[in-house]
Amino acid sequence: MSGQDASQATPLVRRWPYLLPLVLILALGGVFTKRLVDVEQGLNPNVIPTVLLDTPLPSFDLAPLPGRGTSLKSDDLKGEVSLINVWGSWCIACLVEHPVLLDIAASGEVPIHGIAWRDEPDRSLAWLAERGDPYAKIGQDPRSKAAIAFGVVAAPETFLVDKQGIIRYKQTGPITAEDWRNKIKPLIEQLKK
Amino acid sequence: MKTFAILIAALCVSAPAWAVEPQEMLKDPALEVRARAISKELRCVQCQNETIDESGAQIARDMRILVRERLQAGENDDQIIAYMVSRYGDYVRLRPRFMNSTLALWIGPFVILLAGGFVVASRLRKGGKNPDPLTPEEQATIASLIEHGERTP
Question: Do B84 and B17 belong together in one domain?
């Protein structure tokens, strides 16, 4: 008897707080669903957004691979639009990216400089000899100094640098042919103007 | 029993396993202690929920080494952490800073606690009032239940 009586005695307006948990659960459900949909549509929750966009590239001076040109210096990169690709012969995802880099190099649109990250020089050279060499200059970064300066988490990562030496774009993970066509190439054309 | 005692003793004296490798450590114990303290503030960027002090990832190892090199170069703790933040963003701090975007994180729990306390307090105050006395009909029903074990029709 009391349940019924109480509900009759308490006006409906005063019972709205009992709906709060339901509202909260629905709101949470909405947030979770949004996130799941984002991930489904290709958002990678593990990617840390870079804080280096639109900042000058860090200064570095990296030794070349033996017998392969001169060192890779940050100062030398000023004056032209270029890509800096952080890679390693141990890196599986770099294998996926490699044909795209070769295509970009062949197109002559932009020089690609390589940072051979945490690698043995011999292995880097053997890897390039076997698969082709898309790089203009390559600098070695055995102790991650440059990689950390670039905020690199995992190879491959690629930075697009403008004529003033400002970082304009960062690609985390392999560049696909679509990324090149739709994002990077248009940006380069814009930066070259 | 003796074996058991030896086992316990061994467990007591053994150091916990760290990711820091002996060759990474600095000769100067004071600097090494500072290096360890800084490393515990920095998040491994690859594993995301470990400090670089405890992570076995290569990048964490190289970050530890860089921390030590910068310590030896005479930088202070804040400068080293600031450098890492300038490269990786606030993400690299394991202990989030108090700022606009982390406001909810820091004060959220206290707001919820306060709100809950407020609800409980207002309930208690309301509950303290004496309920209305029973009506004569209710008293009759109870008396009948006690006496006959059932309601009078």
Answer: yes
Axis-axis angle for helices B77-88, B29-39 (nearest 10): 30
Q: Are residues B112 and B129 in the same domain?
A: yes
Question: Given pLDDT bands bounded at 50, 70 and 90, which one contains residue A190?
Answer: very high
Mutation choice for A interface testing from B42, B44, B45 by most A CBs within 10 A: B45
Identify whether the C-beta of residue B63 lies closer than 8 Å to the C-beta of residue B94: no
Computed over every residue of chain A, the mean pLDDT equals 90
- Residue ranges making up the domain that contains B26: 13-95
Q: Does A63 touch chain B (CB under 8 A)?
A: no
Question: In the 8-state DSSP scheme, what is residue B93?
Answer: B
Q: Are B105 and B74 in the same domain? A: no
Taking CA–CA distances from B65, the nearest residue in chain A reads A143
- Report the number of distinct structural domains present in chain B: 2
Residues A19-74 pLDDT 10s: 889 999 999 999 999 999 988 887 777 777 788 999 999 999 999 999 998 999 99
Provide DSSP, A136-192.
Answer: S-EEEETTSHHHHHTT--SS-EEEEE-TTSBEEEEEESPPPHHHIIIIIHHHHHHHH
Residue in A10, A120, A148 to test binding to B, most B beta-carbons within 10 Å? A148
Which chain B residue shows the shortest CA-CA distance from A57?
B87
What's the token pair of residue B55?
Answer: 């992570």
Check A153 against B46: CB less than 8 A apart: yes
- Determine contact: B122 vs chain A, CB below 8 A: no
How far apart (Å, rounded) are the C-alpha atoms in residues B55 and B129? 59
Nearest CA in chain B to A149: B87
Nearest CB partner across the interface for B87, out of A46, A49, A151: A151
CA-nearest residue to B92 within chain A is A48
Fold designation for A61-192: Glutaredoxin (3.40.30)
pLDDT digits (tens, 9 = 90+) for B98-120: 888 889 989 999 999 999 999 89
State the pLDDT at residue B128.
Answer: 61
